[in-house]
Specification:
Helices cover about 55% and strands about 0% of the residues. The protein is mainly alpha-helical. It has one domain.
């Protein structure tokens, strides 16, 4: 006679795994954080002096033209006089270079985030707001929460996993909300209109001007952009290092293609995309390359003296 356990006492079966289970707490090697942190902080002077060098020109703009963003009004940030702009500029660059060394990661990282946030308020409070900054700004916000991390740190951290998940979600939302904005303000006419055609006429290069002679091509490109942007949440299902690398190559390839055809590049967003890569492998790869170069440069052993 076989006995059966009551339902309340029956052994529980394996918990069903969902694709996103543990997404926010999946441990990440601290070496990944250390390498990406160096990249993120070293990009600050590039952004300040090259990518958005025009921000410093606001030091010479009459303060009457300053219309602070909502966050600028809520935090009662200072009006960007010439002194304020130059102090923020040089303090930001100095803190970023210091933070790139990995020292005092919480203190210097927080300083970089606060100063870059103010730099962006100064940049975007004159009538133009770019959408390619939010993922990079989130990266600067979450990096100080992790603490000490070294390039060869083999430990894994849930705090690091949470930080990188936050950046990845923001990267995804940048694409998804871009599609949402297209539908909100342009409707389906955006996909069937001549948005990219106008962009090619205004900013096109030899790599894109030929598309104007192919009927329907740019309209198809606009539909493809909408589909891919609305499908951006699928990025969160990527797990393996190989798949993550393929995703990064695809996204960076898209932005390089846009730059080649329209001379538009979202560099801060591209830096945020780099957070998806398994950077913990980078120090070992560098050491292996150095080892090969060292062996190649090693002097040949002296020939044995002839007998006799």
């Amino acid at each position: 006679m076989s006995a059966t356990l009551p339902a309340a006492e029956a052994p529980a079966g394996p918990r069903r795994r969902t694709p996103l289970r543990g997404f926010w707490t999946r441990p990440v090697p601290l070496a990944r954080i250390a390498v990406f942190r160096t990249i993120a902080y070293l990009f600050v002077p590039v952004d300040v002096f090259l990518t958005t060098a025009w921000v410093s020109a606001h030091a010479d703009v009459p303060t009457a033209y300053y219309q602070p963003l909502v966050i600028g009004r809520l935090l009662d940030l200072p009006t960007p006089t010439s002194t304020v702009v130059h102090v923020v500029q040089w303090a930001l660059v100095a803190c970023a270079l210091a933070a790139a060394t990995g020292r005092a990661p919480r203190l210097l990282g927080t300083a970089v985030f606060v100063l870059y946030l103010e730099w962006m308020v100064i940049a975007m409070s004159y009538g133009k707001v770019d959408h390619d900054r939010i993922a990079y700004l989130v990266a600067l916000a979450v990096l100080p929460t992790i603490g000490v991390a070294r390039w060869r740190d083999r430990r894994s951290s849930e705090a690091a996993g949470w930080a990188m998940a936050a950046v990845m979600v923001t990267v995804m939302l940048t694409y998804f909300l871009a599609a949402w904005a297209k539908m909100r303000f342009g409707g389906w006419d955006w996909a069937t209109g001549s948005t990219i055609t106008r962009a090619v006429i205004r900013r096109g290069t030899v790599l894109s001007e030929w598309t104007l002679d192919v009927p329907g091509l740019l309209t198809a490109v606009q539909w493809a952009m909408l589909v891919l942007e609305f499908a951006a949440p699928l990025m969160l299902l990527v797990r393996s290092d190989r798949a993550r690398t393929a995703l990064v190559l695809f996204l960076l390839g898209f932005h390089l293609m846009v730059f080649g055809g329209l001379r538009i590049i979202f560099l801060p967003h591209c830096v945020a995309i780099l957070s998806i890569l398994p950077w913990e492998r980078f120090p070992d790869a560098v050491a292996a390359v150095r080892g090969r170069l060292g062996r190649g440069r090693a002097p040949a052993a002296p020939a044995a003296a002839p007998p006799g």
